[in-house]
Every structure is written in structure tokens, then in C-alpha cells.
């Protein structure tokens, strides 16, 4: 009898699923795989095949995570926090270096990037911390610093890799989450002013030489077109040549002729816009807008503070990845190497994206 009731309850919860959320994500992934195929077909077919396999794995992970009651994360958030620290620490012992950064752990043919999982765990543990210790709202700078101390060890470990892009995304996500805790405006203005004043100090004393060069390239890419400004310049050429309707599938000359580096990862949007043009961009950007709005709608219709903060945090991660990646391909943001979630090639990124959507779906079906 008990098992029968459990099955009925499970089906009842499954009926509450927002199926359009995952369908929206799968449509973006289909666009991604076709664009990866177009960008790499002249060299190899392995990239789009690997991405297809990761998409299937990600979908399975999404279904599994959806079935886990999100409130369990609140119960075990301290354990999750320790796991996050352990995973990020392990990279300095068993991680491999690529392009001057130690961000990956390799298991045979599979490479994983712990900081990608770290972002999700930060959202879960920070949501639990805020909903446990600040049940009403955040008031004053002291409260913000207490909440900030929760993520400080994570940020330091990610900065050590170094991975400035992920660090910035976590900081911006943190800002959104504390704002949604009804932070008072006096504190918001004070912190905002302090952040602006901190920028020059960070530029001259905290950023490494190559990071400062990226900022200078962002401000004036034409100053070194054949050097640091090459990627952005070629990206803007690809986007502009797509015009209204695009050149058509498999006709992205910038990637085919190897003018556009990292065409299937960081600059995949440039390839897509060159082939599909402005109208294709409207479709793709519209899909992301709808995806993020669905996540925020689930947050707004959830009365549980923990579930609400989780959705806001995950929605922020998707939003900031979109803004940073699309912005850098158009030359309106510095190049940081952050992928466009669900679109850029990368197994870890795709898997974590589906896991995040599964957590949001869990909030949807298990909320009171």
C-alpha cells in the first residue's frame, strides 16, 4: 500500500513538470550540435559526435536530478560545501594545465572542469545559508560580509587556478541572490559605490598582465589586430558578414578558413550568426530569453525561500554566461573564455547545464 501511494505521488509530481523548460534547452542543444558540426567538419567529426553523447548523458542526469527533492540539499548543505572545497582543492594535486591555467581533471579520454560544478554547489549552499541564517532579510554591510565569507574560500580556490571569468560569474550571482533577500537600498548603494571605486585598484594591482591586455583589447581591438585583437576582430567580421539571412548552413567562411579561433567553443555564436544571420540570432537569443524567464517564473511562484533563491541563482548563472559570451563575440565585453551554456562545445559545461535545469525542475515539482 505504501509503495502504491508513493508511485501515485510520484506521478502526481511528474504532472507538475514544466516540460517546455527541457524542450527549450534541447532545441538550443540541437542548434549547438549542428553549428559545432559546421564549424569543425573540415577538420574532424569527433566534436559534434562527442557533444551528442554528452547531450544524452546530460538529459539522463537532468531526469535523475529532477526526481531528487531539492529540500534534501538544505539538509546536507554543509556536506555539499565540504565536497565543493575538496573538489576544487583536488585540482592542484591531480589537475592538468592547459593554456596557462590548471582547471581540468582528466580521467582517460574525459576531461572535467571542477569549477563548473563549483558554481552549482555555491548556489545550493549559499541558498541554504541565506535561508537558514537570514530568514527575514539582509540588513547592513555586516550581513553582506557574513554571507560573502561563505563563498570567499570558493572564490580564492578558483582564482588560484586562475579562472577570473568563473570568479566574476559567482560574484555577480552572489550579488543577485543577496539582492533578492530584500537587501536594504542604503547598503546596496554603499556596496555599489565601493565596487566602482575598487575597479581601478583591481585593474592595476590584482589583474595579471594578460588579463589587463584583454581589457585594453576590449577598449581598442584595432590597436593590435594581428595580435591580441585578432579573435574579436574576426568574430565581428563573421557576425557582420551574416547580414540579415546569413550565408547558409556549412558556409561559415571565417571558421572554415581558420580565421576564427575556438570557433566551436568560445566563438560558436559568431559561426551561427554568420550562417544564420540576424534573423537566426533573434531566434537563438529568444530561446535563451524564454529559458531564463521560465526559471525566474518558477522562482517567483515558489513560496519556499530556499527554492526561490536556488532558481534565482541558477537563472543568474545562465544570464551572465549569455551576456559575457555574446558580449565578447560582439566586442562589447572583454574576452574571458566563458562558454555559452547549452551552445558552446564542452561536455562538463553541457552536463552541468542540464543538472542545473534538473534542480530548477525539482523546485517546480516538490515545492509546497
TrEMBL record:
The chain crosses the membrane at residues 21-40, 52-70, 79-97, 117-134, 141-158, 164-181, 188-206, 277-297, 309-328, 340-360. It catalyses: [GlcNAc-(1->4)-Mur2Ac(oyl-L-Ala-gamma-D-Glu-L-Lys-D-Ala-D-Ala)](n)-di-trans,octa-cis-undecaprenyl diphosphate + beta-D-GlcNAc-(1->4)-Mur2Ac(oyl-L-Ala-gamma-D-Glu-L-Lys-D-Ala-D-Ala)-di-trans,octa-cis-undecaprenyl diphosphate = [GlcNAc-(1->4)-Mur2Ac(oyl-L-Ala-gamma-D-Glu-L-Lys-D-Ala-D-Ala)](n+1)-di-trans,octa-cis-undecaprenyl diphosphate + di-trans,octa-cis-undecaprenyl diphosphate + H(+). Pathway: Cell wall biogenesis; peptidoglycan biosynthesis. Its main location: membrane. Its EC number is 2.4.99.28. It holds the Pfam family FTSW_RODA_SPOVE. It is found in: Cell membrane; Membrane. Keywords: Cell membrane, Cell shape, Cell wall biogenesis/degradation, Glycosyltransferase, Membrane, Peptidoglycan synthesis, Transferase, Transmembrane, Transmembrane helix. It is a multi-pass membrane protein. It is an enzyme of class 2 (transferase). Peptidoglycan polymerase that is essential for cell wall elongation. HAMAP family: PGT_RodA (MF_02079). Belongs to the SEDS family. MrdB/RodA subfamily. This is Peptidoglycan glycosyltransferase RodA. It comes from Fusobacterium mortiferum. The lineage of its organism: Bacteria, Fusobacteriati, Fusobacteriota, Fusobacteriia, Fusobacteriales.
Amino acid at each position: 500500500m505504501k509503495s502504491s501511494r508513493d508511485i501515485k505521488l510520484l506521478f502526481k509530481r511528474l504532472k507538475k513538470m514544466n516540460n517546455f523548460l527541457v524542450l527549450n534547452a534541447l532545441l538550443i542543444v540541437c542548434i549547438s550540435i549542428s553549428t559545432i558540426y559546421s564549424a569543425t567538419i573540415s577538420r574532424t567529426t569527433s566534436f559534434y559526435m562527442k557533444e551528442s553523447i554528452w547531450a544524452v548523458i546530460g538529459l539522463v542526469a537532468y531526469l535523475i536530478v529532477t526526481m531528487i527533492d531539492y529540500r534534501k540539499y538544505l539538509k546536507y548543505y554543509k556536506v555539499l560545501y565540504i565536497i565543493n572545497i575538496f573538489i576544487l582543492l583536488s585540482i592542484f594535486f591531480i589537475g592538468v594545465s592547459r593554456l596557462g591555467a590548471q582547471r581540468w581533471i582528466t580521467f582517460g579520454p574525459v576531461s572535467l572542469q571542477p569549477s563548473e560544478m563549483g558554481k552549482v554547489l555555491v548556489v545550493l549552499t549559499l541558498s541554504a545559508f541565506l535561508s537558514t541564517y537570514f530568514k527575514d532579510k539582509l540588513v547592513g554591510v555586516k550581513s553582506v560580509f557574513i554571507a560573502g565569507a561563505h563563498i570567499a574560500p570558493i572564490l580564492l580556490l578558483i582564482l588560484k587556478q586562475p579562472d577570473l571569468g568563473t570568479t566574476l560569474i559567482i560574484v555577480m550571482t552572489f550579488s543577485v541572490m543577496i539582492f533578492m533577500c530584500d537587501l536594504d537600498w542604503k547598503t546596496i548603494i554603499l556596496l555599489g559605490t565601493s565596487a566602482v571605486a575598487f575597479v581601478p585598484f583591481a585593474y592595476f594591482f590584482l589583474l595579471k598582465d594578460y588579463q589587463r591586455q584583454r581589457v585594453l583589447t576590449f577598449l581598442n581591438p584595432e590597436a593590435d589586430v594581428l595580435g591580441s585583437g585578432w579573435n574579436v576582430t574576426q568574430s565581428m567580421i563573421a557576425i557582420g558578414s551574416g547580414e540579415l539571412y546569413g550565408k547558409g548552413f556549412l558556409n561559415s567562411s571565417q571558421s572554415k578558413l581558420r580565421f576564427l579561433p575556438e570557433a566551436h567553443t568560445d566563438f560558436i555564436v559568431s559561426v551561427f550568426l554568420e550562417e544564420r544571420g540576424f534573423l537566426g540570432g533573434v531566434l537563438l537569443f529568444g530561446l535563451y530569453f524564454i529559458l531564463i524567464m521560465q526559471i525566474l517564473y518558477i522562482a517567483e511562484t515558489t513560496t519556499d525561500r530556499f527554492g526561490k533563491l536556488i532558481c534565482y541563482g541558477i537563472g543568474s548563472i545562465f544570464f551572465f554566461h549569455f551576456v559575457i559570451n555574446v558580449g565578447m563575440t560582439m566586442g562589447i565585453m572583454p574576452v574571458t573564455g566563458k562558454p555559452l551554456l547549452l551552445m558552446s562545445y564542452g561536455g562538463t559545461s553541457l552536463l552541468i547545464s542540464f543538472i542545473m535545469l534538473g534542480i530548477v525542475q525539482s523546485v517546480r515539482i516538490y515545492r509546497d
